[in-house]
Structure formats: C-alpha cells, structure tokens
Write the structure tokens for this entry.
Amino acid sequence: MKIGKRLANFLDVLGLRKRLDRLENNLNRFLCDNCLGVDLRGVDWEQYERDAAALKQNFAPAEAEKLERILTRMEKVALYEGVYRKNEIYSFAELKKFAKMNSIPRRVKPVENYYRFDRYKLPRPAFEPSIFYDKYELARLKTADRARKSGAAIFDAGALIGDSALILREFFPDNPLYAFEPEKTSYDDIFKTIQLNDLKNVLPVNLGLADRQGEMAFNFAGGGGSYKNRHVR
C-alpha cells in the first residue's frame, strides 16, 4: 500500500501502523479471495470499517479525503473487478500517468553490453516503470534535505541489480548507500551498474536485511523474490 511506505514513520509515531497494516492485510485478502473465487464471508468487515474510521480521524480533512479515495479505489479493484471501467476508478490525469509509465519498457535500448533508458544504464533490462517514473516520490520527502546534510547512510533493502541506487543517488549524491541483495547473480550485477553509471560510495552487500541474524529460504523469479516462509534459522 503506497501510503504505508510514504507515511510509515509518521504512523509509527502515532501508534497507527498496526491498524494500517491490518487494513492492508484485509484488502489483500479481498484481492486474493476474489481472484481465486474463495468465499469472502470470513473477512472481518466490521473491524475493517473501524480501522478505516479510526485512521482517518488522525489526518487533516484534505488528507483524510485522499485516504478515503485510496481505500474506496482498493475496494473497487478487490471486490468488483470487471464491473468498473478504468476511468471509473482512476482519474484522467492518473490514466495519462499510467500510459507514460507503461511506455518505459518500449523505450529501453540495448547498447553493446548493457541496456539504456534515458541517462540510466543497467546490465540487463530491469527498468521497473514504477521506479524510473515516480522515483519513489523522493522529491516529496520532507526529511530529504536533513538526510543529505547529515550524511546519513541510505539502506537499499532488496537492491536487485542496483536500479534503485541510480534513483537514490540522484537525491542523495554524497550519502553512503548500502545496497543489500541476497541473490548472488543480482548482487554481482550491482557492481556492473556501479561501473556503467560511475556511481560513487555505493556499497553492495550480499545479504538480506532483517531485524535478526539467521538464514531464510527465498524464492527468486526474474526481477524479484520473496521469502518462502517467515521462519529464520
């Protein structure tokens, strides 16, 4: 859920992160159940409504209205897929943005031993549109100036081949950047991305980033991966 990433620290301070996570989990369950044709009667709708109402009380009116639009949109996608047309879920400006964002793969060009999009170079065509178009909306991050001035270390948790590092380096040109990537092939490609783009002070780490030491089984597929289970040995 995008709002969860952007407002994570703010929500933690207010003690609302668990409530937001529960909202997202409920909506994810709606999505999975609806796609698989599973009975939705087990979903705690009343708890969902209570969580949504409590969450909105902690936002200014304009932000609460945005949150309401996000939740309503997610409900439409989750519960009524195929009923609503795209222009009934997304605004015209959003649809234009999606079109531009989705055009990125078509604009990637192979050049000798690497691939290029705009001024960015990667050893394989892993130009994720949501990264290279929105750039994680870092331009809206209010603490960015403070992080730049303090020289704080930036952690890229799940760096893949260093594609995110290209964007992070734009916004934090001098901060040390640690690129954590557990999958060895992708980890090795980070060094190629660093060389292709002449990146400075980017430090690849062939580990996953977690809150404890141990080992975990992962599934890797193409451009990303996910853990098989939450058990850490």
